[in-house]
Amino acid sequence: MSSNDLGTIEERLADLAAQTAKLERDRDMQALPAYEAVHGVLTAGKAATLAQDLTAWLDQLPPSSLVRVQVGNVITVMSVVPDLVAGEIKRINDQAVE
To answer: Which residues of 8-33 are buried (b: 16+ CB within 10 A; e: fewer)?
Structure first.
């Protein structure tokens, strides 16, 4: 394989990487309204305080209870996912500016 062949391969790989990046940006921009809607649901009304409300009751549930485990899972999800979605929205918006 000659060095010229390697240059061609590197050029094709770079082109494929650019195409992949464009497709991913297009996908992200298409999904942005859904991300924004999900974030709105997670941060509005009862959902906005659900983790805090459940935390107040967690210590009153038996430590080995499946219910306690699942309530703990809900608390974790409701505490983390809104920020995760907000981060994804920011990433997509920042990417659109570039």
So the answer is: eeeeeeeeeeeeeeeeeeeebeeeee
